[in-house]
Write a structure and sequence with these properties.
Elements: H1 2-99
């Protein structure tokens, strides 16, 4: 009976060691998975930060384009006004010249 108790005890000890090794292996797998997730989260955070910078740059460029477009529109209005003024002056000059016939 004592031999059987020792055998049972040894078997249980071996089973406990086997289970402990399996648990250790599972914990190692979980640790690796957590490390992988952490790396991916850091990559996502880095990519998000980079995209934020790019978005700010695009926004700044769009504002610059808008400013240039507004300046161009102002220049066109000034050119139209100058053209109309020149047209009036040409008409006045023509009228003045028509008075001086030889």
């Amino acid at each position: 009976m004592e031999a059987q108790a020792k055998s049972n005890s040894r078997n249980r000890s071996e089973e406990s060691v086997t289970h402990a090794l399996e648990v250790g292996s599972h914990l190692h797998s979980i640790t690796e998975a957590i490390s992988y997730i952490d790396e991916r989260a850091q990559q996502i955070a880095s990519a998000t930060e980079e995209q934020t910078h790019v978005s700010h740059d695009i926004n700044k460029s769009l504002h610059n384009i808008n400013d240039v477009a507004a300046q161009t529109a102002d220049n066109i209005r000034q050119s139209v006004a100058a053209g109309e003024s020149m047209s009036r002056m040409a008409a006045e000059l023509k009228a003045l010249i028509s008075r001086f016939r030889l």
